[in-house]
Amino acid sequence: MDEKALAVREFGEKVMSLLRKIVWLSAAALAAGTPAMAQTSDYKAAKAAGLVGERVDGYIGIVGEATPALQDIVNDINIKRRAVFQKKADENKATLEAYAFTVGCQSIARTQPGEKYQAPDGTWKTRTSAPPERDPRCP
Amino acid sequence: MAKTGMLGASALSAALSGCINISAPDEPIVIELNINIQQEVIYRLAEDAADTVEENADIF
């Protein structure tokens, strides 16, 4: 193989590698972009309607009958929460579970009347104007 | 002298009769260290957790 052919081949490989990068990046942008934005408002609507509620462990759960749409919302939010919890737990030298549980104490305390939350016995409750039933370990 | 002797004797008898009996309980003694440690951790993390909820309003 002469030098010219080698140079052409090298150039070709560089172009291909660049093209692959562009395709991959646009696919990633599409996957991460608009659907996630839409799901945040879906989550807020489901929360306001009492279809999803705050669990004791710091994540959200489906309150009544599960549907694929609700499951998508719950999975999306819980994956994002878990990532935040893990980062914060590491920063605070705590376990993921302890950090998530502490957030659960906070997010249950912050529920608005009409929203759903999980009581320490595992049952779903509707928040009233009274303080919510929380785990005795909550601050 | 006699008074001191009397006092000494009563103290001795009190010490002798006041022995403590310890019987082993039927149930094993379980100390729930886990709960205490976790509560300490929860109190330590509470402020940071409250900030996390506020800073990530889109997922809370």
| H/E element sequence of chain A | HHEEHHEE
| Fraction in beta strands of chain A | 5-15%
**Mean pLDDT score of chain A:** 86
Between the first and last Cα atoms of chain B, what is the distance in angstroms?
82 Å
Side by side, the strands of the main sheet of chain A go 2-1-3-4
In words, what does this structure look like?
The complex is a heterodimer of chains A (139) and B (60). Chain A is α+β, with helices and mostly antiparallel strands. Chain A has 4 helices and 4 strands. Chain A has a domain at 33-126. Helices cover 60% and strands 9% of the residues of chain A. In chain A, strands 2-1-3-4 form a 4-stranded mixed beta sheet. In chain A, helix 2 (34-48) crosses helix 3 (68-91) and helix 3 packs across helix 4 (96-109). Chain B has 60 residues and is mainly alpha-helical. Chain B has a domain at 30-60. Chain B contains 2 helices and no strands. The relative contact order of chain B is 0.06. The interface between A and B is medium-sized, with 24 and 18 residues.
Describe the secondary structure blueprint for this structure.
The complex is a heterodimer of chains A (139) and B (60).
Chain A: H1 3-32, H2 34-48, E1 52-54, E2 60-62, H3 68-91, H4 96-109, E3 116-118, E4 124-126
Parallel strand pairs in A: 1-3
Antiparallel strand pairs in A: 1-2, 3-4
Chain B: H1 2-17, H2 33-55
